[in-house]
UniProtKB/TrEMBL annotation:
Protein's UniProt name: polypeptide N-acetylgalactosaminyltransferase
Location of the Ricin B lectin domain: 345-468
Domain of life, source organism: Eukaryota
Required cofactor(s): Mn(2+)
Transmembrane segments: none
GO MF term list: carbohydrate binding; metal ion binding; polypeptide N-acetylgalactosaminyltransferase activity
Length: 474
């Protein structure tokens, strides 16, 4: 096996264009039109900045020449003073910029999410590695051997502020149940081969990929019902794997990708991401689709979010005779916790005290009683085992959740510990609960109750609890 070929800088453009060449012509034309619009807006911004600077210069020249003195130390300090001390753009960059340049850089950053000011000033004659087409060979070699494989390079990160390249190691492209993407190690079998140049299997892709055009067309190209941002990469990964293909990350191919600090077209990606995730779940996840609702803490039914028409995509799945999602979990992504024994979730409220369980201070191990607001720190999950998680639930089997625990002393506050740690210390982490009734620890036979607005564990007095959403009768 030959050594990996380093593919950087302009190869990202090659991969980008290859990716979009797989879609229909109208998609490509639409993309080019958007690029032209963005370029026009950027040029207009620069022209406004130039005219503004020209207006300011004559005004400065009107100052009395008699008052002009050689620039002293105070002037130097004023020139280098940061006008935007709270801006992440200037956290590691821009200390020597003039005030006018700081204003221009900040204005462009706010609009585009990365350092356009610096990007425009990179010298065109700077040395660059050879990035001609043969550098794509590691990706194309995999497709030549198997037309059903979709391949992705390793992404190095280009900082949005100083544009420095941060090297990333090869990893699988994974996701959680909310369908946010993430990096994850390859399978143990991959590392046993002891060859870091080999492609590694990946549950998903992160948006930059190369595929056989005909194969991608056969399995439905991209879901045009997805909106704005998020989830389309996970949808594609699930579809490729379950409909006859596979996904690989190729370490011998690298690109550099600017990760913008914010998306200029949508400051809050949450609503679009949630909507797209629900669409993916409804089409592809079968009996596991409600795990997406769990991850976003929304009801299973009547959630009020329009996911668009999915009839054609469901017909596509049936026509391609794609495998069930359970096959995908068992064979492609066994690291994902199926959550198949969850009984209930949401805020857990004492009907007698009219308050909810809250995870309390983090870091810390003491849950508290607090007025109900039904958000992150109050998210509660009750499993068939009797475990009760407070403050969230982990999507992956390799991560431990935080269990509500009776730590075993006399009348006391409850504990909140990683479940494995609590078991090792002999704490009671299993609870018996029926909706509208008491919450009793199986090991100590004591109950969780709220006394004088304080969460305690004591002999049961009949305090009643209710949890927001029931998944299965219990």
């Amino acid at each position: 096996m030959s050594a990996c070929m380093k593919v950087t800088h302009s190869i990202s453009l090659i991969m980008f264009l290859l990716t979009f060449s797989f879609t229909e012509d109208k998609v490509l034309r639409g993309f080019e039109k958007k690029q032209d619009i963005m370029q026009k807006i950027l040029e207009e911004d620069r022209e406004k900045q130039r005219k503004s600077a020209e207006v300011q210069r004559p005004a400065e020249k009107k100052k009395d020449d008699a008052n002009i003195q050689p620039q002293n130390e105070a002037d130097q300090m004023k020139k280098s003073e940061k006008l935007f001390p709270n801006s992440v753009l200037f956290k590691e960059w821009g200390a020597n910029l003039s005030e006018d340049d700081q204003r221009e850089a900040q204005s462009l950053y706010e609009k585009y999410g990365y350092n356009v000011y610096l990007s425009d000033r990179l010298p065109l004659d700077r040395p660059l590695p050879d990035t001609r087409d043969p550098r794509a060979e590691p990706l194309l070699t995999q497709i030549k051997a198997d037309r059903t494989v979709v391949v992705s390079p390793v992404f190095d990160r280009v900082n949005f502020d100083d544009l420095k390249v941060i090297t990333y190691h090869p990893n699988a492209h994974a996701f959680d149940w909310a369908l946010w993407c993430m990096y994850e190690s390859f399978t143990p079998e991959y590392y046993k081969l002891n060859d870091g140049s080999l492609p590694g299997k990946s549950p998903s892709v992160m948006g930059i990929m190369v595929a056989d055009r005909k194969f991608l067309g056969e399995i439905g190209v991209l879901d045009e019902g997805m909106k704005v941002y998020g989830g389309e990469n996970v949808e594609l990964g699930i579809r490729v794997w379950t409909c006859g293909g596979s996904v690989e990350v190729v370490p011998c191919s690298k690109i550099a990708h600017i990760e913008r600090a914010h998306k200029p077209y949508m400051p809050d990606l949450g609503p679009a991401m949630k909507r797209n995730a629900l669409r993916v779940a409804e089409i592809w996840m079968d009996e596991y689709k409600h795990n997406v609702n769990l991850a976003w803490n929304i009801p299973f039914e009547n959630h009020g979010i329009d996911i668009g028409d999915i009839s054609e995509r469901k017909k596509l799945r049936e026509r391609l005779n794609c495998k069930p999602f359970k096959w995908y979990l068992d064979n492609v992504y066994p690291k994902l916790d199926p959550w198949d024994d969850l009984l209930a979730y949401g805020g857990m409220k004492s009907l007698d005290a009219d308050m909810c369980i809250d995870q309390g201070a983090v870091p810390g191990h003491t849950p508290i009683a607090y007025n109900c607001y039904y958000y992150g720190p109050q998210f509660t999950y009750y499993r068939g085992t009797g475990e009760l998680y407070i403050g969230g639930i982990k999507s992956h089997k390799y991560n431990d959740n935080r269990c509500l625990a009776d730590i075993g002393t006399e009348e006391t506050e409850p504990g909140l510990y990683n479940c494995k740690e609590a078991m090792q210390k002999g704490m009671g982490i299993y609870w018996d609960f029926t909706q509208g009734e008491e919450l009793k620890n199986r090991q100590t036979k004591r109950c969780l109750e709220i006394i004088n607005k304080k969460l305690i564990i004591q002999e049961c007095t009949g305090q009643r609890w209710t949890i927001q959403h029931i998944i299965k009768p219990f």
